[in-house]
Amino acid sequence: MAVVLVILLHASVPGFEGGYVGVDIFFVISGFVITGLLMRQPSRSIRQNLGHFYARRIRRIVPAATLTLVATVIAAYLLLGVNFESQLLGDVRWAAMFAANFRLINTGSNYFVPGVAPSLVTHYWSLAVEEQFYLFYPLVVFSLTWLTPRRYRVHAMAGFLVAAIAVSAWWSFHLTPINPVTAYYSPFTRFWELALGGLVAVVPAAWARRSERANSVVAVLAVVALGTAVWRLNANSAFPGVLAWWPCSASALLLWTGRASVKGAPASWLSWRPLRYVGDISYSLYLWHYPWLMLPLQRVHPISSPMARVVEVAGATVCAVLSYHFVENPIRHSRRLNRDGWATALVLLIAIALSWDATLLIGRLAHVT
């Protein structure tokens, strides 16, 4: 759901002006998944658990992200001609360091400024926010696990997450009308969305199993709420602010009710095999869709017909499938890398170097720095 909504927005499909809430759905899901993963870690030292977690994140995130960055900067140079923007080189370097959101804040960029061509790696801002959250979040989880008796660990985690949600949501509410660009891209205004997903993961699943029929009704209402948010929200909405609670709370309810609901409920619809496959490739699809959709619009003679959009989405899907099966999975499930943390760290350094080298090469070819 998250990636499809974002693609429909960027493809300018009518009726999906609020498709940017797909990112908020993604944040809630990510917080849910990663919190559950962290809470299930075996009893090892904090250092060992942190090393294991960061190594997994590197293998999962970095290779596909690097491939897309390198391909994007090369494609932009070859296809845009005189419309090639040297600013893209700096954007790629920041994206390679998982700091694209700070780059966008510093340059005053905005997804929604009419007539201004967005950076081809603008979508990396959400990836940056996620990784910034997970830079310190595991330390909190493992520290609480180490310091708190087993019987009180869930309570301690829930207390921390509730406090994090309250502080971050308040800051989002405060900053959105004052500085909307910073509010949109800042990790501090978005952390509560990931923490909300984490809170759903912490609440015992047994509680959900007490009311499967009620869960199913709530899940349908949550889907309706998400659809309404996509339909009603647009580029002029004061977002994230208070409005972000609309898609985020609906996403949290879907996650909660999906743990126990009757057959035929939304959990059943979303478990349909083709949709699950879209979920499997969603990370690569998210990475590839944006340059495919934005590059043709930035050419000297823009390509913007509906059929072109269909072809572009198809091309992004092909790239996502190839990336998933031949880059993501082989590296993610590599036994060698799983056993050797130093080799995984080397993968990260090589990936960053490749992205920067690509920008230096294209900068030299384009006679810019």
What does this structure look like?
This protein is mainly alpha-helical. The protein has helices spanning 2-10, 21-39, 46-80, 87-96, 100-107, 124-147, 153-175, 180-185, 191-202, 205-208, 212-232, 245-257, 266-270, 273-280, 282-294, 306-332, 335-339, 341-365. Helix 1 runs parallel beside helix 15 (282-294), helix 2 (21-39) packs across helix 9 and helix 7 (153-175) packs antiparallel against helix 9.
Number of helices: 18
Low-confidence sequence ranges: none
Let me know the number of strands: 0
End-to-end Cα distance: 39 Å
Average pLDDT, all residues:
92
Major β-sheet annotation: none
Strand content: under 5%
Order of helices and strands: HHHHHHHHHHHHHHHHHH
Rg over alpha carbons: 21 Å
Helix content: over 70%
Describe the global form: globular
Which structural class is indicated by helix and strand composition?
A: mainly alpha
In short:
The chain is mostly helical. The chain has helices at residues 2-10, 21-39, 46-80, 87-96, 100-107, 124-147, 153-175, 180-185, 191-202, 205-208, 212-232, 245-257, 266-270, 273-280, 282-294, 306-332, 335-339, 341-365.
Question: How are the SSEs placed, and which strands pair?
Answer:
Layout: H1 2-10, H2 21-39, H3 46-80, H4 87-96, H5 100-107, H6 124-147, H7 153-175, H8 180-185, H9 191-202, H10 205-208, H11 212-232, H12 245-257, H13 266-270, H14 273-280, H15 282-294, H16 306-332, H17 335-339, H18 341-365
Helix pairs in contact: 1-2, 1-15, 2-6, 2-9, 2-12, 3-4, 3-6, 3-15, 3-16, 3-18, 4-5, 4-18, 5-6, 7-9, 9-12, 11-12, 15-16
Properties at a glance:
mainly alpha; 0% strand
